[in-house]
Design goal:
The protein is 37% helix and 27% strand. The chain has helices spanning 15-28, 75-81, 114-121, 127-138, 144-154, 162-176; strands at 2-10, 32-39, 47-55, 67-72, 85-93, 108-111, 178-181. Strands 2-3-1-4-5-6-7 form a 7-stranded mixed sheet, sandwiched between helices. β2 and β3 (47-55) form a beta hairpin. The longest helix has 15 residues, at 162-176. The radius of gyration is 15 Å and the shape is globular.
Length: 183
């Protein structure tokens, strides 16, 4: 098993954190992992993306140009990464802030209204975990128990009260994903 994933959006949406939780979750499952972030100098509002590769075998290179999955959280990322999803792959996106929805018919397209999920959980900071839950529903590449361990590894002790909120957001996100085009 090998899954090459790009997660892309604005800084402040938790793109890098989502990738980090996914990477640590896979490590807890004894998988091989790469986590390669890319972001501009802005703290919030600039574009950010992270490439995460999960594999049960050694990973030859962290450099990827075609992805099994693209998780897209803004229009700039949709414009840049929609075409990089391999045929038969998955494009998961949040429709808020998207003006041009995905057009490809050779991939599975799904959406998650993560803002609504986060609001339902009661904290906008869990937005990214709602998206992660949707992804894990469609591609269960790591077990939920390992995601819990990954959350504990990534969330600083001073914010430990957010762990259960993040877990709730993952569950609600997995229940809220909508498949638009399935191949």
């Amino acid at each position: 098993m090998k899954e090459e994933i790009i997660i892309a959006g604005f800084g402040g949406q938790g793109v890098l954190s989502m990738g980090k939780v996914l990477a640590y979750s896979a490590i807890m499952q004894d998988m091989e992992v790469t986590w390669m972030p890319s972001y501009g100098p802005e703290m919030r509002g600039g574009t950010a993306n992270v490439c995460v590769i999960l594999s049960d075998k050694k990973i030859g290179s962290p450099i990827v140009t075609k992805y099994d999955t693209a998780i897209i959280l803004n229009q700039q990322s949709m414009d840049k990464f929609e075409k990089t999803v391999k045929a038969g792959g998955l494009l998961l996106y949040d429709p808020s802030g998207i003006t041009r929805h995905p057009e490809r018919k050779d991939i599975t397209v799904a959406q998650i209204n993560a803002i609504d999920v986060a609001a339902g959980v009661g904290n906008s900071k869990v937005y990214n975990m709602a998206v992660l839950g949707a992804f894990l529903r469609l591609r269960p590449v790591v077990e939920m128990e390992n995601v819990r361990k990954g959350l504990k590894k990534c969330i600083p002790a001073r914010y430990s009260e957010l762990i259960s909120l993040n877990e709730d957001a993952i569950v609600k996100g997995s229940e809220s994903v909508l498949i638009i085009n399935e191949i």
